[in-house]
Amino acid sequence: MEKANNSANSANLADPVWATSRTAVQIYDLGEVEKSITRLLRLAASSVSLLTLPQTDEPGSKLPQGDERPEQFVMEVGEYFERLDTIQTSIRSALSHIRRSRIAPSAINAPPPGFVPPSLGIGLPNESSSGSINRGLQEEKVDRDAWKGILEGLTRLKAERDAERREEAEESNAMKE
């Protein structure tokens, strides 16, 4: 529970929008996991470099020499495993949240390579794009609901006009008889 509060507090410090819901906090935490994975890979590379012989170090590298090298390796490996544990916990927490939210797996698709998240908002499809619209799931849902509302409104309007025309036709037939 303390970890969840820490996540919410760190999200509050970054931007208040991340504290608007539990899902927003989870998304923020996954962004932090991504940053941690980057750091984890750097630690792994540095640890491997520390395992090599000092003679193979590139000129100008800032790797320690002598007895400092094994000490630095132990420190970096310790940080590596701490960070790996944190990443594992965060990912498990996010998966637990997804399970509790009962989000359909079909709603969680990886974006295509090179995908750039769009700004928020809805609008008419852009004809200048080459057939693909880069919008998020929420924008698609809002856009779909807006078009459904328009369709329902037009359908009701057409039904009312058809009913009026039938009534007028019946009245004119009744007057003729």
Automatic annotation (TrEMBL):
Residues 157-177 are annotated as: Disordered. It is found in: Nucleus. InterPro entries: Mediator_Med11. The keyword Transcription regulation applies. GO terms for molecular function: transcription coregulator activity. Keywords: Activator, Nucleus, Transcription, Transcription regulation. One of its GO terms (cellular component) is mediator complex. GO terms for biological process: regulation of transcription by RNA polymerase II. The keyword Oxidoreductase does not apply. Pfam families: Med11 (PF10280). Component of the Mediator complex. Component of the Mediator complex, a coactivator involved in the regulated transcription of nearly all RNA polymerase II-dependent genes. Mediator functions as a bridge to convey information from gene-specific regulatory proteins to the basal RNA polymerase II transcription machinery. Mediator is recruited to promoters by direct interactions with regulatory proteins and serves as a scaffold for the assembly of a functional pre-initiation complex with RNA polymerase II and the general transcription factors. Belongs to the Mediator complex subunit 11 family. This is Mediator of RNA polymerase II transcription subunit 11.
